[in-house]
């Protein structure tokens, strides 16, 4: 298997965390800060990011698609990610761009591996095969208490999707899995308490990103 940056010249930053952690807000603030420094930034998200990925996104997230067993769910997320890497992320990195992605492999390891009890190692291997070994240069984990996350995302928002509507216990196992992943490779992670004020989070994230090789 190839190394973490097969043909990359750009920078690959992923945001991870439970539902309602505020990832999209922080991804947007980081993108704006980097663009202000004249960096070319590609913001994208998973599942999705390609036509096939958006179709898989509706299949796997919307209610009413019929039963989806855990293995099928894991394979759908992995397929969406494989297409995303091939069609969008790897080409942007090869052009020297900064790619900021809302969720990546760790979401599958946490949600399908831990949450759905498929096993974190097998889900990681499946996804690393799908992405040909591409890993983020930095993963920003916004750690959120599942109850806070649920309150945040349901206040004034649309109904919860298939994964979000799982019970608190499911979301607690996901949080634990994210923290374990970060604990194993501290150099490649920045873990922040999602309850901190937005501007505070943004400052800490920008400072950590500034330490990465340009
Ligand atoms: P999304 O609306 O993008 O949620 P958020 O804004 O919280 O990121 O929905 C993505 C949902 O899909 C979320 O509940 C997490 C789940 N998910 C997985 O279960 N596995 C995965 O590999 C990915 C990328 C997401």
TrEMBL record:
<dbReference type="InterPro" id="IPR027417">
    <property type="entry name" value="P-loop_NTPase"/>
</dbReference>
<feature type="binding site">
    <location>
        <begin position="17"/>
        <end position="24"/>
    </location>
    <ligand>
        <name>ATP</name>
    </ligand>
</feature>
<dbReference type="Pfam" id="PF02223">
    <property type="entry name" value="Thymidylate_kin"/>
</dbReference>
<feature type="compositionally biased region" description="Basic and acidic residues">
    <location>
        <begin position="159"/>
        <end position="168"/>
    </location>
</feature>
<keyword id="KW-0545">Nucleotide biosynthesis</keyword>
<keyword id="KW-0418">Kinase</keyword>
<dbReference type="InterPro" id="IPR018095">
    <property type="entry name" value="Thymidylate_kin_CS"/>
</dbReference>
<dbReference type="GO" id="GO:0006233">
    <property type="term" value="P:dTDP biosynthetic process"/>
</dbReference>
<dbReference type="GO" id="GO:0004798">
    <property type="term" value="F:dTMP kinase activity"/>
</dbReference>
<keyword id="KW-0547">Nucleotide-binding</keyword>
<keyword id="KW-0067">ATP-binding</keyword>
<dbReference type="GO" id="GO:0006235">
    <property type="term" value="P:dTTP biosynthetic process"/>
</dbReference>
<dbReference type="GO" id="GO:0005524">
    <property type="term" value="F:ATP binding"/>
</dbReference>
<dbReference type="GO" id="GO:0005829">
    <property type="term" value="C:cytosol"/>
</dbReference>
<keyword id="KW-0808">Transferase</keyword>
<feature type="region of interest" description="Disordered">
    <location>
        <begin position="149"/>
        <end position="168"/>
    </location>
</feature>
<dbReference type="InterPro" id="IPR039430">
    <property type="entry name" value="Thymidylate_kin-like_dom"/>
</dbReference>
<dbReference type="GO" id="GO:0006227">
    <property type="term" value="P:dUDP biosynthetic process"/>
</dbReference>
<comment type="function">
    <text>Phosphorylation of dTMP to form dTDP in both de novo and salvage pathways of dTTP synthesis.</text>
</comment>
<protein>
    <recommendedName>
        <fullName>Thymidylate kinase</fullName>
        <ecNumber>2.7.4.9</ecNumber>
    </recommendedName>
</protein>
<comment type="similarity">
    <text>Belongs to the thymidylate kinase family.</text>
</comment>
<feature type="domain" description="Thymidylate kinase-like">
    <location>
        <begin position="15"/>
        <end position="205"/>
    </location>
</feature>
<dbReference type="InterPro" id="IPR018094">
    <property type="entry name" value="Thymidylate_kinase"/>
</dbReference>
């Amino acid at each position: 298997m190839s190394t973490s940056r097969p043909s990359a010249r750009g920078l690959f930053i992923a945001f991870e965390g439970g539902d309602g952690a505020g990832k999209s807000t922080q991804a947007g603030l980081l993108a704006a800060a980097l663009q202000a420094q004249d960096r070319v930034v590609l913001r994208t998200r998973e599942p999705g990011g390609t036509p096939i990925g958006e179709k898989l996104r509706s299949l796997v997230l919307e209610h009413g698609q019929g039963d989806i067993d855990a293995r099928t769910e894991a394979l759908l997320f992995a397929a969406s990610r494989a297409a995303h890497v091939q069609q969008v992320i790897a080409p942007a990195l090869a052009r020297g761009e900064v790619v900021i992605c809302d969720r990546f492999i760790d979401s599958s390891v946490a949600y399908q591996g831990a949450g759905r009890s498929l096993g974190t190692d097998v889900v990681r291997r499946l996804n690393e095969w799908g992405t040909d070994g591409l890993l983020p240069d930095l993963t920003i984990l916004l750690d959120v208490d599942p109850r806070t996350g649920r309150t945040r995302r349901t206040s004034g928002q649309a109904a919860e999707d298939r994964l979000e509507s799982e019970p608190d216990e499911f979301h607690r196992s996901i949080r634990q899995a994210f923290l374990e992943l970060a604990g194993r490779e501290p150099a490649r992670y920045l873990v922040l308490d999602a309850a901190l004020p937005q501007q505070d989070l943004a400052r800490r994230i920008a400072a950590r990103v500034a330490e990465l090789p340009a």
